[in-house]
Design brief:
By secondary structure, this protein is an alpha+beta fold. The chain has 6 helices and 9 strands. Helix 5 links the parallel strand 5 and strand 6.
Length: 184
């Protein structure tokens, strides 16, 4: 059974016309009171914006980048970025509508993103960075086969395009998952 058909989802590449809907989705999943409806909120550790129209448009237009837009019944319900980076793909900008979180939609979307990256670019690994303080989110990715690397990069303190930190210990940890199936 086709998982996307079973869930009534349509996957497509984002266009310039999707920018406002994508910004609204991403903001609703991570910032402010609306984000507290779901479990992916960062509202306790970051205030301000998560992204802006210029940032989303730049990701849509970037060479080697795809923003998968996920629709159900004609409404944008989720998105993620895939970027080809040589021998691996980068997974980012993942957002699921807070009202739909916790029902398995994220699992379907990340599996489709992994399949797409592997089939489109032939990459053997998916990489992502997650704020290391987000233990619940990291645990969710670990259940999907991602492993913590311990490789950290600093949070961009002072750049309010990424939010206003509410604590001084934020950093990003690299998570990695092999995509290629081992030879038998």
């Amino acid at each position: 059974m086709d998982t996307a058909a079973a869930t009534g989802l349509t996957f497509r590449d984002a266009t310039d016309a999707d920018v406002d809907a994508l910004v609204a989705l991403i903001e609703s999943a991570y910032r402010g009171d609306s984000s507290r409806t779901g479990w992916t909120t960062e509202a306790d550790i970051l205030e301000g914006q998560r992204t802006d129209p210029e940032g989303v448009l730049a990701v849509i237009k970037a060479p080697g980048s795809h923003v998968l837009t996920v629709e159900r019944d004609g409404a944008v319900v989720a998105c993620c970025q895939l970027e080809h980076r040589g021998d691996h793909a980068y997974f980012g900008m993942f957002a699921v509508s807070p009202a739909l979180q916790g029902g398995g939609l994220g699992k379907v979307i990340i599996a489709e993103a992994e399949r797409h990256a592997h089939e489109t670019w032939g990459v053997a690994e998916m990489h992502m960075t997650v704020i290391s303080a987000r233990e619940d989110l990291i645990a969710w990715y670990e259940r999907r086969g991602y492993r913590r690397t311990g490789k950290m990069t600093p949070f961009p303190y002072g750049d309010e395009r990424f939010g206003i930190p509410q604590r001084d210990d934020l950093q990003f940890e690299l998570l990695v998952k092999p995509l290629a199936q081992p030879a038998r």
